[in-house]
Specification:
Keywords: Membrane, Transmembrane, Transmembrane helix. This protein has 8 helices and no strands. The protein is mainly alpha-helical and 269 residues long. The chain starts with a helix and ends with a helix.
């Protein structure tokens, strides 16, 4: 009989605690919290890209937000994700400066300082690269620093638990990067004309609004004229009625005259 699911979960949790048991709780909590903004921006960028793909395909009833707002937010969140990644890489390098200041494992001099400098040199140029290329470079930076931290731990330059701690955080961030790159690779070919499509949608919306504004203006002007000139309209109708009455009276008088002349002619004959 297979063990219940709860037993398997408890066993997995026990293995996890045993593997990461030496990591200080404070470091674990702060480190995991530090990955949340990176994960949040990654998921949000994917959601907005998917939203734009819906717009390009003309599926207007599945928008999370309007395509214009989605495009605007993408221009903000993509640099934000890259900038935050550059900050994390720089901090990971700065840790080695702190270990050198504390003389953990002895003074290592330039060898340990170089790790902090190289991480910063690698991290910050990524903010100038296109989004996908920046993610690739940062992926190389995270994995490269993890390899350097593994060796630093082996040489005694860092606490024994640091290698395990760095593995967990690097795994979370790099998995997020790979997932973003894979999904971007799937979305972008379907989204090749998204900008043009969004421009067309925006232009159509502007035309519709302009037409509606014009109709509203004409309607308001008609109402204003009707309010301002009710007397003129009434006078016009009265004048027409008077003209009809006068014409009818003249016709009757003319008819009477013709009848009278006819009678006179008959009498004379």
């Amino acid at each position: 009989m297979p063990p219940p699911a709860t037993s398997a979960i408890k066993k997995d949790l026990g293995t996890f605690k045993e593997f990461f048991g030496d990591v200080p709780k404070e470091a674990m909590v702060v480190g995991l919290a530090g990955t949340l903004p990176y994960l949040a921006t990654s998921v949000t960028v994917l959601g907005l890209s998917w939203n734009n793909q819906r717009a390009y395909q003309g599926i207007t009833d599945m928008f999370i937000i309007s395509p214009e707002s989605s495009e605007y937010l993408l221009h903000i969140l993509q640099p934000l994700q890259i900038g935050y990644g550059a900050c994390i890489i720089s901090i990971l390098g700065a840790i080695h400066w702190g270990l050198e200041f504390a003389e953990y494992g002895g003074r290592q001099g330039y060898n340990r300082y170089a790790l902090g400098v190289l991480s910063t040199v690698l991290a910050w140029p990524t903010v100038l690269l296109p989004f996908n290329y920046a993610l690739i470079v940062q992926f190389v930076g995270f994995t490269g620093l993890w390899y350097a931290d593994v060796n630093a731990t082996k040489y005694g330059w860092a606490p024994p638990w640091y290698m395990t701690y760095r593995f967990l955080l690097t795994f979370i961030v790099c998995t997020s990067i790979v997932f973003t790159l894979v999904m971007q690779g799937w979305i972008e070919p379907h989204n090749a004309g998204s900008i043009q499509r969004l421009d067309e949608l925006g232009e159509k919306k502007r035309d519709d609004l302009e037409h509606l504004r014009k109709l509203t203006k004409e309607d308001n002007q008609g109402n204003e004229r009707q309010k301002e000139n009710p007397i003129k309209d009434e006078s016009k109708h009265r004048a027409v009625d008077e003209y009809k009455d006068e014409t009818e009276a003249d016709s009757q008088e003319s008819l009477k005259d013709d009848v009278a002349e006819g009678n006179t002619t008959i009498e004379e004959n």
